[in-house]
Write a structure and sequence with these properties.
With about 500 residues, the chain is mainly α. The protein has 2 domains: about 80 residues, no CATH class; about 375 residues, no CATH class. The termini are far apart.
Length: about 500
Amino acid sequence: MQPMFAITWIEFTGATLFGLAVLHTFSTKYFEHLAHTQPRHAGLWHLLGEVETVFGFWAFVLLIFMAVALGWGAATDYLDQRRFVEPMFVFVIMVISASRPILQVVSDVVRKLAIAVPLPASVAYYFLALAVVPLFGSIVTEPAAMTLAAVMLRDVIFTRNASSRLKYATLGVLFVNVSVGGTLTNFAAPPVLMVAAKWGWDTATVFSMFGWKALIAVFTNALILTLVFRKELARKAKADADRRAPRAPAAFVLVNVAILAGVVATNHYPEVFIGLFLLFLGLGEAYKRHHDGLMLREGLMVGFFLAGLVVLGGQQRWWLQAVLSSLNETALFYGAAALTAITDNAALTYLGSLVEGVSDEFKYALVAGAVAGGGLTVIANAPNPAGFAILRNTFDEQSINPFGLFLAALPPTIVAIVCFRAVPKAASEMFDYRVWAQWFDSLDRPLLFLFILPFVVAVVGLWSDIGRSRKDGRQRTSGPTHTDAGQE
């Protein structure tokens, strides 16, 4: 009986630490503010304010607890049972995709497409970065598409003194579009990949179920956002941000594209794609003049984040699988979209695939809901931390408010929900209180508390941030007046 008791306590502790990690994720803006207001301990506050370190930090806490409670051997055995291929792959694909040769190819393609768009060049470039590049994720995988789109958007608008409203709205649409844009094939989106083999889904099946609807959602989100902010984009966006940079020769570009293709094709075999990555690094060292600085730090931080999520996520099966198996098809769709906000959508679909004897409607609802909700938070979809790391420094205090991201991602998420549920049916379901009441009634009260608490903390943090910004604005406004008075 003792081993079962120990396992039960480990699972409980793992769920508690997972909840604390989610809570910590929604509180990073507060720690970043402390880093600026309390410079004496700025290093500590910066560490706690790094979203990419959150799950890695709490994963270490879990491992320490396991080592003390069960012994070092049990802790290392638990690590050996985890699969860290995805964190390694995201790190590799992020560094390669953000290199100058790859960006040069994608930027050239987008510029040529922009000629056919009846918008100013810079606005068309922005629109295509949100509409076309996320769809590349169905070929080069979602982490690569996220990296490419984030770097392009960073150069075209985020570093151009854009408003916070535009930045958050763009980030929300980017996360949602990348999440749904990888569903044109059966191998690129993590939540689809987790279930495709077991359920016998090939690319034609996935496209017929999700792909064409994803196309509508992606283009609708990108078009609406571009039209809403068209005036600001026309003033500030720059489509030729990298034209002054020296171009890599065609032969060198082709070699790097071949390496990227090899990494994508061997994404399940770390021995192979790590070897290709080392080859990429060797070529980058030999031909530094054809590279900008490689995104190694950002890639490692994102890999650390995802590795921590893998470690903590391994202890969440006991409650996640129970919740998923208790829902009917309609409640499951909305439940999966909501639960994705506090857990990785690939883990969600994987746990759902362990439920035996499910219907085709169950399968569709689980994957569609997980994909639709993949942009709500930084932990909702594996590629999100990559975009977060690339764009974070362009926001105030070099930090992104998680609740601001959640609010910005809600409208494009609703568009995705409508597309995946079919317009007439979705319009009634989304505003049917009985559907939501049924889903909430199916949740355990501790789980409901875990789900709501991070958003409460984020709301308080956002409210505090707004109040602080207003106070700073008043001080800046009154500052010159006092100066003038002193001069008089």
